[in-house]
Every structure is written in C-alpha cells, then in structure tokens.
C-alpha cells in the first residue's frame, strides 16, 4: 500500500527562514510528476518556483495564497501512485528517502526540471477554495485545535493572546485572519464606530476601530529592504555630499556608443568603478565584531531597480573586470530578471557599493540610505537643461546632480570628496577614463 508523502518547505538558502505562498500551480486531485513546479513562493529576496520531489496525486495543499510558511512546515501532500511498488528504487522512492532523512536538498530555489506546459498552467482564483475544500484532511496532530490554520493566523492569535481552540472557524473549518480579528475585537471591546471631538482626543483609538484602513503585510522583498535600511540607519554614521555637474559630454558619449549597447547607466557604472579603484576606502565594509575595516580587492556593483515587487538591488559581480559594453549587458540582464520576478537570491547579495539612478523618477537629488553593510551609495539625479558657464560664456547645458552618502567610519570627507569630484570630472569629460586604460 502506498503512503501519502508530505513535502515540506525546503531550505531556500541565503539564510532564509520563511516564504510566502504566492500562487499554486496545481489543485487537489491533480496528478504531478517528480520535479514538477507546483507552487510559487516569495522569500525576502526573490520569487521562487518550487518543484515537488514526489510523483502521484495531490491530496492536500497545506497553505493558501498569502500564507507565510517557515522552512520545514508542510507545503503539499502527495498520494503516491498505486502503480509504484513499495520499496521501489525509482526517483520517487529516492526522494521519499531524502524527505524522511530531512536532507533539505530537494530544492535549491529554482527547480530541477519543468513539467509540460499544459500541466504548469496557473490556477488563479482557485487557490483559496481549493485549500479550504480539503480541510477535512487531518493536517494537524492537535486533537482540540481546528484543522486548517495558517502560520500567519497562528502568529496573530499568539500576539494577542487568543485561544484558537475557542475561535469559531469560517467556512470549511478554516480559521481565517478576520476570525481572529473578530475574537480580538470581542475581547477588547473595540467599537466599530470611532468617537470624535475632545473626548476622542483624550484616549487612544485602537487601529482596528478605524474604518477604511488598508493593511499591507510587511514581508517578502519589502520586509527585507525595510530591515536592511533600518539597520543601516541605526548602525552606520553616514554623511552626504553632493555636486552639480555638466553632463553634456556624458550624453554625447552615450549617443556615440549607442550602437555598442552602452547605456547611460553603463557609463555611470564604469565611471563609478573607476572612482572606487582610485578611492578604495569607499569599497569597504566594517567588521564590528573584530573592530576592523575590510578594504575589498574587488568591486561588486549594486544598482537600484524599481519593480512591481518593490525596490530591488541586483549586483553586478566582478564589475571591476568589465568594460562599459559588458557592464551594459549585465545591467540589462539583471534588470530584466528583477522586473520579471525571476532574479535569483544570489544575484542580490555580495554588493560592495551601490549606484542609484533616482533621476529616472524625475527628481534632482536625494539623501540616499547606504545599503548595509556597504560603505557608500552614489546617487544620480535627473539630467535637465540649465544655464551653465562654459569658457566664460553663458550656455544651455545638460546638468545633473551627483550625491554621495558614505560611512564616516571608513573614510573622512577628504576621500569622499575626492571620489565624488573624480566621478564628476568623468561625467563632464568622459575621455578622462582613457587615462586608466
């Protein structure tokens, strides 16, 4: 007799401990094959397609879209095909052995194969109903607790001291977030109508009582960014310096190299790398435990990319070894993956310095936050026509503002100013780069 096989959320690497279920690719009753992608999850670094290591029929989906699972929690249960003999040595049995052993090596984030296109169709709109519809399956060993409770709901209940055994579940025996929120409101006596006037100002109003509030979970990529920026502000004594520059020469160089695939961002990246080679203080990180500044012999250049999932910072590994055309190709490739939601976590780690072209948002300047644990970030504002003095004569030129936020522990204003001035000179006269070739 074939036993059901429970596939748990695997270790996704990079120190990640949880993931949010974005979209199921299968439903209960579907037949799956080994290495077929069954669900898309989002970690703190990227969206990941998760393949299942078993073959058989989907019996239980243990989480609905929007649920957050910790590594090791049940993800999907597959009933093995009756045709597979017990004790077999095929791929399914091999993966069952790994699962029992808790190897965690089934997935390294992106799957080991792909199912036929007809089996990988998205099942939008069915997720919640599918999960709720299989609630009768015994997925909990707690005899008094409801059968289906997402980790997010458990956390909410725990934080507010709600006994889930006493909560009346919604449809299909599923305890939802709003069920717990109603229990919290009942316990605290929160009113649905908010008082106004002096009496209301005299006492705090529970957030749950205010109508129209939109709750947006701080998780996935956005939470990772928030954590990193908060850590940067709390740990790094940063300072910012800036300068206005005539970027007419940079625009002319970009136009001349357009047929070589060299973009404006690629030129800025090449200039930035050249500046870091001249002022290595800014290509450093601080080891607080050892009380040391680590000056790095390589440049891994991060760059800010706005996506539907929020701000991401892909990293060009080994940027110090690339020319402008190579940088342009790599910047374009990574930006495309980021916007498609397929950027691997490894492509967002290991940065030593960040380039932020916030001018694409139509702004002139910014006091950018350093991407911890790096030591600096170069910002580039929009390029606009402005009056500028050239050889003693007033002219209309393409002008932009460059800003540098730097960690004052790794360098002083002299080094930071020297780096920014070198970058500004290269922007105004890109031919200066030829001296380093």
Automatic annotation (TrEMBL):
<keyword id="KW-0808">Transferase</keyword>
<dbReference type="GO" id="GO:0031405">
    <property type="term" value="F:lipoic acid binding"/>
</dbReference>
<dbReference type="Pfam" id="PF00198">
    <property type="entry name" value="2-oxoacid_dh"/>
</dbReference>
<dbReference type="InterPro" id="IPR036625">
    <property type="entry name" value="E3-bd_dom_sf"/>
</dbReference>
<comment type="similarity">
    <text>Belongs to the 2-oxoacid dehydrogenase family.</text>
</comment>
<dbReference type="InterPro" id="IPR023213">
    <property type="entry name" value="CAT-like_dom_sf"/>
</dbReference>
<feature type="domain" description="Peripheral subunit-binding (PSBD)">
    <location>
        <begin position="148"/>
        <end position="184"/>
    </location>
</feature>
<feature type="domain" description="Lipoyl-binding">
    <location>
        <begin position="4"/>
        <end position="79"/>
    </location>
</feature>
<dbReference type="InterPro" id="IPR001078">
    <property type="entry name" value="2-oxoacid_DH_actylTfrase"/>
</dbReference>
<keyword id="KW-0450">Lipoyl</keyword>
<dbReference type="InterPro" id="IPR050743">
    <property type="entry name" value="2-oxoacid_DH_E2_comp"/>
</dbReference>
<dbReference type="InterPro" id="IPR011053">
    <property type="entry name" value="Single_hybrid_motif"/>
</dbReference>
<dbReference type="GO" id="GO:0016407">
    <property type="term" value="F:acetyltransferase activity"/>
</dbReference>
<dbReference type="GO" id="GO:0005737">
    <property type="term" value="C:cytoplasm"/>
</dbReference>
<protein>
    <recommendedName>
        <fullName>Dihydrolipoamide acetyltransferase component of pyruvate dehydrogenase complex</fullName>
        <ecNumber>2.3.1.-</ecNumber>
    </recommendedName>
</protein>
<dbReference type="InterPro" id="IPR000089">
    <property type="entry name" value="Biotin_lipoyl"/>
</dbReference>
<dbReference type="Pfam" id="PF02817">
    <property type="entry name" value="E3_binding"/>
</dbReference>
<keyword id="KW-0012">Acyltransferase</keyword>
<dbReference type="InterPro" id="IPR004167">
    <property type="entry name" value="PSBD"/>
</dbReference>
<dbReference type="Pfam" id="PF00364">
    <property type="entry name" value="Biotin_lipoyl"/>
</dbReference>
<dbReference type="InterPro" id="IPR003016">
    <property type="entry name" value="2-oxoA_DH_lipoyl-BS"/>
</dbReference>
């Amino acid at each position: 007799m074939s036993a059901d096989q429970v596939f748990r959320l695997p270790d996704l690497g990079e120190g990640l401990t949880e993931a949010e279920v974005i979209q199921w690719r299968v439903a209960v009753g579907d037949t799956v094959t080994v290495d077929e992608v069954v669900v898309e999850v989002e970690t703190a670094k990227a969206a990941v397609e998760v393949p299942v290591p078993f073959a058989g029929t989907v019996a239980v989906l243990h989480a609905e879209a929007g649920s957050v699972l910790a590594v090791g929690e049940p993800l999907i249960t597959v009933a093995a095909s009756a045709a597979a003999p017990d004790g077999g040595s095929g791929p399914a049995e091999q993966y069952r052995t790994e699962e029992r052993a808790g190897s965690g090596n089934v997935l390294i984030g992106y799957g080991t194969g792909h199912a036929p296109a007809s089996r990988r169709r998205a099942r939008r709109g069915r997720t919640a109903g599918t999960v709720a519809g299989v609630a009768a399956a015994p997925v909990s060993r707690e005899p008094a607790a409801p059968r289906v409770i997402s980790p997010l709901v458990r956390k909410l209940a725990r934080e507010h001291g709600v006994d889930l055994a006493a909560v009346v579940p919604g449809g299909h025996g599923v305890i939802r977030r709003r069920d717990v929120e109603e229990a919290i409101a009942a316990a605290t006596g929160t009113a649905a109508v908010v008082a106004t006037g002096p009496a209301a100002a005299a006492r705090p109003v529970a957030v749950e009582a205010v109508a129209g509030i939109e709750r947006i979970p701080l998780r996935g990529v956005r939470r990772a960014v928030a954590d990193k920026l908060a850590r940067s502000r709390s740990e790094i004594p940063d300072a910012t310096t800036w300068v206005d520059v005539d970027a007419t020469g940079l625009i002319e160089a970009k136009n001349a190299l357009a047929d070589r695939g060299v973009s404006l961002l690629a030129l800025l990246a090449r200039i930035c790398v050249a500046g870091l080679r001249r002022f290595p203080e800014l290509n450093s990180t601080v080891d607080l435990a050892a009380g040391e500044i680590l000056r790095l012999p390589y440049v891994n250049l991060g760059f800010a990319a706005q996506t539907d999932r929020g701000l991401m910072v892909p990293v060009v590994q080994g940027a110090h070894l690339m020319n402008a055309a190579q940088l342009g190709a790599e910047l374009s490739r990574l930006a495309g993956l980021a916007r498609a939601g397929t950027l691997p976590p490894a492509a967002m780690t290991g940065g030593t310095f960040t380039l932020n072209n916030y001018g694409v948002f139509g702004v002139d300047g910014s006091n950018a936050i350093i991407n911890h644990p790096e030591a600096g970030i170069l910002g580039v504002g929009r390029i606009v026509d402005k009056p500028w003095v050239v050889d003693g004569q007033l002219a209309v030129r393409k002008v932009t503002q460059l800003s540098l936020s730097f960690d004052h522990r790794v360098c002083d204003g002299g080094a930071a100013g020297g780096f920014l001035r070198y970058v500004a000179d290269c922007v105004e006269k890109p031919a200066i780069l030829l001296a380093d070739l």
